[in-house]
Amino acid sequence: MERLIVARMADGGPEIFASVQGEGVSMGVPSTFVRLAICNLRCRWCDTAYTWDWQRFDRAASTMEITEEEAAASVRALPPRNVVITGGEPLLQRRQLVPLVEALRAEGYRFEVETNGTVGPGPLAELIDQFNVSPKLAHSGNEGLRRIAPAVLREFAASGRAWFKFVVAEPGDLEEVRAVCAAGGIPPERVVLMPEGTSAAVLTARGRWLAEACAREGYRFSTRLHILLWGDRRGV
């Protein structure tokens, strides 16, 4: 029986909850979120650092292990049948995820995976309906870490199941977006740009010029709907 390392909520249970997808091409879709722990990157603006930053957060208090059967039961207890597996970096546990995904797909559930694009889909390649790939730009602060993996990005691009979401902080970031897309064989119609920010004011200010850039470049635009509705809170 496989065990998953998941984020722990304040009440002691796993961070599996119902909300609406807040970002990307599925924004607004009712979804059940399964938040896994552990990440191979260290983004300075990460809003889920409690899933990996053990210098700032206590690992035992922030994470827990559950079986795939326990995870499936938690998903079944919630209404949305679009399941978003997020993190952390979910594909670090791709093998452990297979039984969960296979069991729930047989019951008609749909799956999205949020990933940073440095780890390939592996055994999940044909099981996930939509990969939301978010390559990290230089402003993420991942010095010394492999934040861009062109071969992995090309694999996702060739799958036809991936969208590529870039977090943009400044207009100068657009040049790097173009370079990453060229290296990864990513067509502009599969690119989504989203402003970096954890407040409505910042998202609105950055969103104005970013939406205009999307119109020029042929990219999609996404805000962070959950931040606009609930602020920077967990479990929503």
UniProtKB/TrEMBL annotation:
The pathway this protein participates in, as annotated, is:
Purine metabolism; 7-cyano-7-deazaguanine biosynthesis
PROSITE patterns in alphabetical order? RADICAL_SAM (PS51918)
Q: What is the top-level taxon of the source organism? A: Bacteria
Any one GO BP annotation for this protein? tRNA queuosine(34) biosynthetic process
- Identify a single GO molecular function assigned to this protein: 4 iron, 4 sulfur cluster binding
- Per UniProt, S-adenosyl-L-methionine binds at W45, C46, D47, G88, S134, P135, K136
**For this UniProt entry, which segments traverse the membrane?**
none
EC class of the enzyme, as a word = lyase
Q: Which residues bind substrate?
A: V20, Q21, G22, R35, T86
Catalyzed reaction equations = 6-carboxy-5,6,7,8-tetrahydropterin + H(+) = 7-carboxy-7-carbaguanine + NH4(+)
Domain Radical SAM core span(s) in chain numbering: 26-232
Names of required cofactors: Mg(2+); S-adenosyl-L-methionine; [4Fe-4S] cluster
Question: What are the protein's UniProt keywords?
Answer: 4Fe-4S, Iron, Iron-sulfur, Lyase, Magnesium, Metal-binding, Queuosine biosynthesis, S-adenosyl-L-methionine
Q: What is its EC number?
A: 4.3.99.3
List positions binding [4Fe-4S] cluster. C39, C43, C46
Q: Which family does it belong to?
A: Belongs to the radical SAM superfamily. 7-carboxy-7-deazaguanine synthase family.
Instruction: Name it.
Output: 7-carboxy-7-deazaguanine synthase
Q: Which gene encodes it?
A: queE
